[in-house]
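Good morning C.,

I know you're traveling, so I'll keep this short. The sequence:
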Amino acid sequence: WDVGQPAVTWSEEGCAIHEVRRAFQPTPQQALAFFAPEHRPAMAAVIRACVREGTPFDIEAPIVTAKGRRVWTRVIGEAEWDALSR
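The tokens, ready to paste straight into the viewer:
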């Protein structure tokens, strides 16, 4: 996710896991909404910490796919800043 951009870029595999069309680009809110409701607050918190402080994360959490299937996923994130970001 390029912070500040309106959409998150998912790989073909990410789209397949979420059972959405290839090249689907959700908004950050839509991407978060795929997580099972009980895991959304924790995911939102780690993403905020990554964006604000650069705290990396590696979490296993279930999503609910576009077809309604519950699937466990592993989500890994790490901040990358350019000269304008810091």
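Safe travels,
E.
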